Amino acid sequence: MGCGSCSTGGGCAPSGCKSNGSCLTGGCGKMEVYDWLSNLDMPSNYIPFQVIEVKFKGARKEFFLNSENIYLEIGELIAVEGPTGGYDIGHVSLTGELVRMQMKRRKTTIDQVTRKVYRKASEADVEKWKIAKGLEWETMHKARTLALDLRLSMKISDVDYQGDKTKATFFYTAEGRVDFRELIKKMAETFRIRIEMRQIGMRQEAGRLGGIGSCGRELCCSTWLTNFKTVSTAAARYQNLSLNTLKLAGQCGKLKCCLNYELDTYLDALKDIPDRIESLQTEIGVARHQKTDIFKKIMWFSYPNTEDWIPLKVDRVKEIMAMNKRGQKPVNLKEEAIELVPVAFVEKIPDYENVVGQDSLTRLDDKPKNKGNKNSRNNPNKTNENRNSGNRPEKGPRPPQNKQTSGVKLAVQGAKPEKGPKPPQGAKSAQNPKQAQQPKGNNRPDQNKKENSPSIVQPVEGAVAEQTGTTAAQPLANRNRNRNNNRRKKQKEKPKDE
Q1: Within this chain, do residues 187 and 136 fall inside the same structural domain, yes or no?
Q2: Checking phi first, is residue 453 left (phi over 0); if not, alpha (psi -120 to 50) or beta?
Q3: Nearest to residue 260, comparing CAs of 299, 223, 293, 234?
Q4: Which residue has the higher pLDDT, 6 or 122?
Q5: At residue 379, does pLDDT exceed 50?
Q6: How far apart are CA 238 and CA 223, in angstroms?
Q7: Do 256 and 298 lie in a common domain?
Q8: Which of 126, 171, 200, 366 is the most exposed, having the fewest neighbouring CB atoms within 10 Å of its CB?
Q9: In the structure, how many helices (H) and strands (E) does the chain have?
Q10: Whole-structure pTM value
Q11: Does the residue 248 lie in any domain?
């Protein structure tokens, strides 16, 4: 078997091309059939079946007569007879005895197969076929523009060119019949080819275009589903699904085909569950039916004006229904409720080594609180962090001696303090700091100015710090309060020097 576009050369199997759909063998195509008879040895007098199956664009597959017994393999490009003349290019999808089974499945007889296989596609045929396929996208958009100009209520969804580029089939969807005779005239003048219009349904359109469903996989109608069965809302009702059209409808706008997949299983389980039950008669009142667990065979009931639901087994519900028919009533359903064991949730510990260091997605949620010192001045319970007497404070402007800093004064015992500005004339010696006089007037230090220097001034050598009613370890608010009180008392006193 020859492969025209993959790099592995001739003779590669369709499933091993690894070309992601671009290989002309068709191995990556959808709705392929596996020939499980290809590796079996046939009898010596075996005559191959002359009908083969050929796949074209989309899900279109047709049968052709191989009257010349050309040796063909699955995936090869061949030239076959067109429906209205000319030739078309397609992939061989099935050969041998499996074709006979497919014809029986589609209810097609050998007499109905009239079109023939011409030859294997040559390089010129493949090149012309690729050029024709490259025109489909542009042709579809131009046709849509022509349909809009004529104000036709139709949607052109796909275009399929014939292999010899002499004919194009336009697939469209519409709610009713559309008079497109004028549209065909304009398209024939524009494209210079024969035009065929074919109306398809919404499901067929979704199958041709493809897409991703709500389950996260490709649409079933575009991958493996070959026929469409009717889907009704009863299928959703039997499975206890909410009748929400937005959730039950697929991309085609119709009910999802997958609603029929598990319907038979639900119908088998519903055989043991009583149908059309609304209430049960008891001595304390009427219990209404709320919901049913089909596979666990549990039914929930509740009394009026109560929020508690009472779970009962299906067998017990049948017995109570029989009692109600005889005129008997149970006392209370709560006494007969079954006990439901809650399912314990066990956190699964991953069995791999966390090389990145990011165990949890919420690792950044538990951040430590801001340890900034922005509000430390207003917090009465926060002590000063820089009161360590063993360490010298950070460098800063030296406060004058006539102003108090954090309620601490400097006293000299036997030694003079460091050089600094002289105290005012009315002030007494610094050896008696309690009698030191404050300057007259409201010459207070700037209280609004933020102090960046530490709140405790280190005493000089030979001096002893005398504290005015507070200790260095007291909160800052208490020291400020005592300092202000001392200032008020000294301002009320008259200076002795006067």
Answers
A1: yes
A2: beta
A3: 234
A4: 122
A5: yes
A6: 27
A7: no
A8: 366
A9: 11, 14
A10: 0.57
A11: yes
Structural domain including 173 reads 131-200
104 within domain boundaries? yes
Residue 306 and residue 175: Cα distance in Å, rounded?
A: 50
Do 410 and 460 meet the contact criterion of CB atoms below 8 Å apart?
yes
> Which amino acid is it at 256?
K
pLDDT number for residue 343: 67
Domain tally, the chain: 4
Q: Quote the tokens at residue 227.
A: 């026929």
Q: CA 14, CA 75: separation in Å to the nearest integer? A: 7
Average model confidence (pLDDT) for the chain?
Answer: 76
d(CA 293, CA 312): 10
Instruction: Give the list of residues 6+ apart from residue 174 with CB closer than 8 angstroms, or none.
Output: 153, 154, 155, 199
Name the domain boundary from 270, 289, 310.
Answer: 270
Q: What is the pLDDT of residues 123-155, one digit of tens each?
A: 999 999 999 999 999 999 999 999 999 999 999
Evaluate if residue 356 carries a pLDDT over 80. no
Single residue among 84, 99, 121 that ends a domain in this structure? 121
Tokens 């076959």 map to which residue?
80
For the stretch 423-450, pLDDT in tens is: 555 444 444 444 444 444 444 444 444 4
Are 294 and 332 in the same domain?
yes
Q: What is the mean pLDDT of residues 314-318?
A: 91
Write the single-letter amino acid at 93. Answer: S
Answer yes or no: do 42 and 110 share one domain. yes
Percent residues over pLDDT 90 in the chain:
38
pLDDT at residue 222, rounded to an integer: 86
Q: Which residue has the higher pLDDT, 325 or 461?
A: 325
Co-location of 138 and 219 in the same domain = no
- CA distances to 65, 83, 92, 293 from 75, rounded to whole Å, are 17, 22, 5, 49
Which has more confidence, 102 or 400?
102
Residue 32 pLDDT greater than 60, yes or no: yes
Q: Strand 194-199 and strand 167-173: pairing?
A: parallel
DSSP state of 249: B
- Strands 408-412, 194-199: pairing is unpaired
- Same domain? For 54 and 71 the reply is yes
- What pLDDT is recorded for position 339? 79
Whether 303 is in a domain gets the answer yes
Burial of 493 (0-12, 13-18, 19+ CB in 10 A): exposed
Kindly give, in sequence order, each residue whose CB lies less than 8 Å from that of residue 259, ignoring residues fewer than 6 positions away: 231, 235, 236, 239, 241, 248
Helix (H, G, I), strand (E, B) or coil at 1: coil
Rounded to a whole number of angstroms, the distance between the first and last alpha carbons of the chain is 124
